[in-house]
Amino acid sequence: MNVSSLRGKLLISMVLGIVVFAGLLAYGDFSRVVRDVRNFRWELLPLILLVTFGNYALRFLKWEYYLKQIGVAGLSKVDSFLIYFSGLGMTVTPGKAGEWLKSHLLKDVAGTSVTKSTPILLAERLTDALGLLIIAAAGVVAFGRDTWPVVVVFAVGGVAVVAVSRNRRASYALLRMLARVPLVRRLEQHFEEFYESTYVLMKPRGVVLMTGLSVVSWFFEVAAFYLTLVGVGVSGGFDTLFKAAFILPIATLAAALLFTPGGLGVAEVGIASLTQTLIIDPARKFVDPKATASLATIIIRISTLWFGVVLGLLMFAVLTRRLARRGVRIDDTDEPEPALAGSDPAA
């Protein structure tokens, strides 16, 4: 993996993020958003960041579980922690290129082949999506039966992925079809190792356990959104919590389906529009729905996506220095990444 090219892609995404935030400020009316910034309960921000970190920490436990499942040995917990969090720093790279950083770092540090560890990314994405889906199902309670088709679509998709991955005949037939595609053909020799790791990680028991962990971890992020809403002046309570538990997962899943880097643009539009429509009461005095929804969206995206990016970049810097002291050099080649891991709904 060419680390230099990742830096360029990361810069592009940062510029895109600035453009998205500028759009939100324009949509909410800059002067009114600034007014709401002054009224925001900033004492809640440390707690918002703390519960967001709780999400990252629980997802790290899932990473550790998957490493054990594919037989990674000789990797210290500190190195594993730094590798996992380094991946967060690249979640906003175009085409999710940065997501492969974890597999490449794992190869450099523990000698585990990229092909063998890549299915971890697939398993993480799948169980994250299922966990978000379960949380979003609370929206059916809050908003009625009109939202059930969304739940069904994602549920069927998740079950289909597990079913195919556990069927060797169907999986190898699919891989042979993919091998006919010129851009994928060069990876054909790695398909068997890729599939065998996938087969292990998609054991029903593991999927159920890790989906359960995802429900808990992503609920931390829902809690961060709930606290953000309270901070901008929305009344607290179970109704707001239920709605937050619907809005954030649905916007995140929608962004994942459209393959935007870190969900940029799609997630912000989803969160702002749903917050304005479903949560903010325009009848309240001195409340401007557009401005309040825009500010809530900016704060939650900074506190989740961009907080993770900054934290990840710091961990990557620590890891590279740690490895340099041991004489381990991060591979900076353009080795091709497998194209089968999917998008990140956790953006």
How would you sum up this structure, described in words?
- The protein is mainly α.
- It has one domain.
- Helix content is 73%, strand content 0%.
- It has 15 helices and no strands.
- It has helices at residues 3-28, 30-39, 45-69, 77-88, 101-110, 114-136, 138-143, 148-165, 168-178, 182-185, 191-201, 204-231, 238-257, 266-278, 289-325.
- The two termini are 21 Å apart.
- The model is unreliable at 334-343 (pLDDT under 50).
How do the helices and strands line up, and which of them pair or pack?
Layout: H1 3-28, H2 30-39, H3 45-69, H4 77-88, H5 101-110, H6 114-136, H7 138-143, H8 148-165, H9 168-178, H10 182-185, H11 191-201, H12 204-231, H13 238-257, H14 266-278, H15 289-325
Helix pairs in contact: 1-2, 1-15, 2-15, 3-4, 3-6, 3-12, 3-15, 4-5, 4-15, 5-6, 6-8, 6-11, 6-12, 6-13, 9-11, 12-13, 12-15, 13-14, 14-15
List its salient traits.
347 residues, single chain, 15 helices, mainly alpha
Please give a quick description of this structure.
73% of the residues lie in helices and 0% in strands. The protein has 347 residues and is mainly alpha-helical.
Percent helix, as a range, is: over 70%
Enumerate how many helices there are, as a single number. 15
Low-confidence spans: 334-343
What overall geometry do the principal axes of the alpha carbons give? globular
Write the element-wise H/E pattern from the N-terminal end onward: HHHHHHHHHHHHHHH
Mean pLDDT: 82
Which band does the percent of strand residues land in? under 5%
Largest sheet: none
User: Radius of gyration over alpha carbons?
Assistant: 21 Å
The secondary structure category is: mainly alpha
The number of domains is: 1
The separation of the N and C termini measures 21 Å
Q: How many strands appear in the DSSP assignment?
A: 0
